[in-house]
Amino acid sequence: MSYYECVHALPEGSSSASRMALVARRLGYQGIIVANCSDSGNIFNFEAARKVRDIEVVRGADVLARDRKGLHNRVTSLRRRVPFLAVQGVSDMIVRAACEDPNVDVLIQHPEGRGNLGIAAARSAKQNQVAWGFDLSPMIRLRGGQRSRWMSIFRRNLVLARKFRIPMMITARPMSHLDLRAPREMIALAGLAGMEMAEARAALEYPGRLLELNRRTWVSPGVELI
Amino acid sequence: MRSRLPVLRERKRYIAFEAEAEGPVISRDLISEFHSAYVSLFGDVGVSVNRAKLISLQGRFGILMCWDGHVEETRAALATIYAVSGTRVAIRVLGVSGTVKAATEKYIPKLSQVSAVEERRIELEEISGWIARSRGLEIDVSRKDRINGSDTRYLGLTCFDLDGGCDDADGTSDGL
Question: How many CB atoms are closer than 10 A to CB A68?
Answer without folding.
Answer: 16
